[in-house]
UniProtKB/TrEMBL annotation:
Alphabetized InterPro entries for the sequence: Cyclophilin-like_dom_sf, Cyclophilin_TM1367
Superkingdom assignment: Archaea
Protein name, entry field: Cyclophilin TM1367-like domain-containing protein
Domain Cyclophilin TM1367-like: 1-59
Native source organism of the sequence: Methanothrix harundinacea
Pfam families the UniProt entry points to: Cyclophil_like
Amino acid sequence: ENPSPQAEAGDVSYWTPGSAFCIFYGSSQPYSAVNHIGKVVRGLDIFFGIEDGDRIILRRGEP
């Protein structure tokens, strides 16, 4: 892949050093480079209400 040190709101990324799946939804930036694997294009505001331990389901939208 092509790791990037920056992210935009909506980026769905994989952080290799921490084996973590990340969804960027605010102004935060990755601790280190991440591999972008997708993008949330609608409903991003719902992430502001998610708390630690909550489960979410992401579905692939129509192109």
